[in-house]
Amino acid sequence: MAAVLAALSVAPVLAAPPVRGAVPTGAVRVVTLPVKGMTCALCTRGVEESVKRLDGVAGATADLGSGLVRVEAAGGKSLSLSEVKDRVVKAGFKVGGECQIEAEGRFSVSPEGRIVFRIPGTAYAYQVLEGSELLRLYKSHPGLKGEFSVSFRLHEHPRWKPPAIAIIRAEGLETAPAAVR
After folding, report:
1. Which residues of the chain have pLDDT under 50?
2. Cα angle, residue 101 at apex, residues 96 and 103 outer, rounded to 5°
3. List of long-range contacts for 16-22, beta carbons under 8 Å, 24+ apart
4. DSSP the chain
5. Reported pTM
6. CA atoms of 71 and 6, how far apart (whole Å)
């Protein structure tokens, strides 16, 4: 918890209006997901090649030993978690377990009083599974607002709306004014 608080305690970032035609600041940069059924090097290559064909994917690496597939977005692009999962399934394998995601986005407090992490330019919004102390800190320190780069573990449960995340690492982003972009 102390690491999360330290990572989130950066100076506020001024939010500039979006520039028409500019790449959104929010983006899913890396997705690491557990894949079941990979039993040989040919399996890992099949998953990698299938995922690499998605628009916006810079690279994919499947590890036979751990069963994990790491997918990286191309510069200025954002990954779609559902498209990556669909591509793994189309390659003949199953996605099983929790994904780890690295993304850029904003924290806010929902009307229900939960901390939510949203990735601008996408439909992704996740409630943050951190204690009430973090919520109190967030509400009392306006410096926690702004753009952040966050690595988190995604907990998908059918009854959780929105899905929940546990933060692994968070860093404040310095954004240039709209005129500089």
Report:
1. 1-24, 175-181
2. 155
3. 16/175, 16/176, 16/177, 16/178, 17/178, 18/178, 19/178, 19/181, 22/181
4. -HHHHHHH-------PPPPTTPPPS-EEEEEEEEEE---SHHHHHHHHHHHHTSTTEEEEEEETTTTEEEEEEPTT----HHHHHHHHHHTT-EE-S-EEEEEEEEEEE-TTS-EEEE-TTSS-EEEE---HHHHHHHHH-GGG-SEEEEEEEEE--TT-SS-EEEEEEEEE-----TTT-
5. 0.72
6. 28
CB atoms within 10 A of CB 150: 25
Count the neighbouring beta carbons within 10 Å of the beta carbon of residue 101.
23
Antiparallel, parallel or unpaired: β 94-95 and 27-36: antiparallel
For residue 131, the model assigns a pLDDT of 64
Euclidean distance between CA atoms 46 and 19, whole angstroms: 39
- Provide the β-strand partners of residue 129: none
The structure tokens 């709209």 sit at 178
SS3 content of the chain, % helix, strand, coil (to 5): 25, 35, 45
Q: State residue 171's pLDDT score.
A: 78
Length of the chain, please? 181
